[in-house]
């Protein structure tokens, strides 16, 4: 696993955005998997700036979704589809036709999960999948003890997650969905390149367990240890519990060869 330690979130965003831009230059129709939340915003801002500056032509790039709420009506502003369209697709100047995601409003949710897995495969697979990480080591909505071979499926949100997300629903807990569709760990591992960004001291323990701990369903992100090309980008705070931090600084800080792989 490649671990790149950067000074702050902005530097991490710029580094990953350049890796994505390099991929799109090599493969204009690359399928880019995106995540929601505040952590990846510096990536999207930096990538959009490169598009505006003419440093990369992303017009043929495709975007796919990591997870989605179940039960929100089509067009709901807090559906993850709407968020990705707002924060990624529109700033990059892409059309909605470039976007792929699971149907969280389908009558047959299990069928919708299976259909999304098939659609990703039929699209040629994800070239680069962005990931965040929870303080408990979850990726996507794969909570601790999720199967490391799991595919796209429906999951029940914990009460704490619903409380945390209530701020996006006018602080009204009753509006927060109880279920989500998430790519499973096995689905995530199908991507050709996994890039996880973590910032802040609150993520330090999860990062250490992911990178240096044992492979364990208790820390779903540790499944990245199985991947042939996984890159973890962390700021100094999130790297603070890594025993091999000095090694990672020496090995990767001035050698970002992972961008061109």
Automatic annotation (TrEMBL):
Alphabetical keyword list: Allosteric enzyme, Carbohydrate metabolism, Hydrolase
Pathway where it operates: Amino-sugar metabolism; N-acetylneuraminate degradation; D-fructose 6-phosphate from N-acetylneuraminate: step 5/5
Domain Glucosamine/galactosamine-6-phosphate isomerase as annotated: residue spans: 10-230
PROSITE patterns listed in its UniProt record: GLC_GALNAC_ISOMERASE
Protein name in UniProt: Glucosamine-6-phosphate deaminase
Function: Catalyzes the reversible isomerization-deamination of glucosamine 6-phosphate (GlcN6P) to form fructose 6-phosphate (Fru6P) and ammonium ion.
Entry EC number(s): 3.5.99.6
Record site feature (Part of the allosteric site), residues: 146, 153, 155-156
Activation/inhibition comment: Allosterically activated by N-acetylglucosamine 6-phosphate (GlcNAc6P).
Protein encoded by which gene: nagB
Active site: 67 (proton acceptor), 136 (for ring-opening step), 138 (proton acceptor), 143 (for ring-opening step)
Top-level class of the enzyme under EC nomenclature: hydrolase
Signal peptide span: none
HAMAP family xref list: GlcN6P_deamin
Annotated InterPro entries: Glc/Gal-6P_isomerase, Glucosamine6P_isomerase, Glucosamine6P_isomerase_CS, NagB/RpiA_transferase-like
Pfam name, any one: Glucosamine_iso
UniProt-listed CDD domains: GlcN6P_deaminase
Organism expressing this protein natively: Streptomyces avidinii
GO molecular function: glucosamine-6-phosphate deaminase activity
Family note: Belongs to the glucosamine/galactosamine-6-phosphate isomerase family. NagB subfamily.
Reaction catalyzed: alpha-D-glucosamine 6-phosphate + H2O = beta-D-fructose 6-phosphate + NH4(+)
């Amino acid at each position: 696993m490649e671990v790149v330690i950067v000074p702050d979130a902005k530097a991490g965003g710029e580094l990953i955005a350049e890796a994505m831009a390099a991929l799109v230059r090599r493969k204009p129709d690359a399928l880019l998997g995106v995540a929601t939340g505040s952590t990846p915003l510096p990536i999207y801002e930096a990538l959009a700036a490169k598009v505006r500056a003419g440093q990369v032509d992303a017009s043929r790039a495709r975007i796919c979704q990591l997870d989605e709420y179940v039960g929100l009506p089509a067009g709901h502003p807090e559906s993850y589809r709407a968020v990705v369209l707002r924060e990624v697709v529109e700033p990059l100047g892409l059309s909605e036709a470039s976007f792929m995601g699971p149907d969280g409003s389908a009558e047959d949710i299990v069928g919708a999960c299976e259909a999304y897995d098939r659609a990703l495969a039929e699209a040629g697979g994800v070239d680069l999948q962005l990931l965040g990480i929870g303080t408990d080591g979850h990726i996507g909505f794969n909570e601790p003890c999720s199967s490391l071979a799991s595919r796209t499926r429906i999951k029940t949100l914990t009460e704490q997650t619903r409380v945390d997300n209530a701020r996006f629903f006018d602080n009204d807990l009753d509006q927060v969905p109880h279920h989500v569709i998430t790519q499973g760990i096995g689905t995530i591992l199908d991507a050709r390149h996994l890039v996880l960004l973590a910032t802040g001291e609150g993520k330090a323990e999860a990062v250490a367990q992911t990178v240096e701990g044992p492979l364990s369903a208790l820390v779903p992100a540790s499944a990245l240890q199985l991947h042939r090309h996984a890159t973890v980008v962390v700021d100094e705070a999130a790297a603070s519990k890594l025993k091999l931090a000095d090694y990672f600084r020496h090995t990767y800080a001035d050698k970002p060869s992972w961008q061109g792989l």
